[in-house]
């Protein structure tokens, strides 16, 4: 299995799928969601509207990638940070559901943004270890997914995820 960390723009990734940090209305928005819809084109929103009536927090839905290099986009809904224990549960299940959809659709590679740590306010120091552990645990038992890549937009987020992965390796 392979987990990678790169600093960059998720819309440019050539993994089979990319994950989106969507909202529960699947209505499109700013941040990474806006960037993915702009780059993917209008078919993605059409497909979302046709197939789904929103998506609960902690879950995810799948569409085609439109004009993106990635064949699929997995629209995950992370929690708005509240500081309560439920945040961790919902963030874990958002990442997990993305990976389960990969297994179901025979997708061998996926790129993730840092879900919930932008407008949704999840402190990246808290979110990174949860994201990295959830993905790492899943990959250990699902060899069909050969690559998970975290694509982090800014320096601080990138270094925080790399550190979280380093600490995870020390602790296993
Ligand atoms: P949320 O609402 O889940 O917090 P945001 O889109 O506000 O989602 O932010 C999530 C993370 O995605 C932030 O770290 C933000 O800097 C980052 N981000 C924004 N645009 C991109 C992009 N094009 N590629 C990768 N990450 C991005």
Give an overview in words.
The protein is globular, with a radius of gyration of 15 Å. It has a 6-stranded mixed beta sheet with strand order 1-6-5-2-4-3, sandwiched between helices. The two termini are 16 Å apart. It is 42% helix and 17% strand. It has a single domain, classed as Leucine Aminopeptidase, subunit E, domain 1. With 172 residues, it is an alpha/beta fold. β3 and β4 form a beta hairpin. It has helices at residues 31-40, 43-51, 86-104, 124-141, 155-171; strands at 3-7, 17-21, 60-64, 72-76, 109-112, 147-152. α3 packs parallel to α4 (124-141) and α4 packs across α5 (155-171). It binds adenosine-5'-diphosphate (ADP).
Features:
172 residues, alpha/beta, Leucine Aminopeptidase, subunit E, domain 1, six-stranded mixed beta sheet, 5 helices, 42% helix, 17% strand, binds adenosine-5'-diphosphate
Q: Report the C-alpha radius of gyration, rounded.
A: 15 Å
Number of helices: 5
Q: How confident is the prediction overall: mean pLDDT?
A: 96
Q: Which outline best applies? A: globular
* Ligands: adenosine-5'-diphosphate
CATH class assignment: Alpha Beta
Q: Terminal Cα separation, in Å? A: 16 Å
Give me the secondary-structure topology:
Layout: E1 3-7, E2 17-21, H1 31-40, H2 43-51, E3 60-64, E4 72-76, H3 86-104, E5 109-112, H4 124-141, E6 147-152, H5 155-171
Parallel strand pairs: 1-6, 2-4, 2-5, 5-6
Antiparallel strand pairs: 3-4
Adenosine-5'-diphosphate (ADP) is lined by residues 9-11, 21, 31-33, 35, 78, 113-120, 151, 153-154, 157.
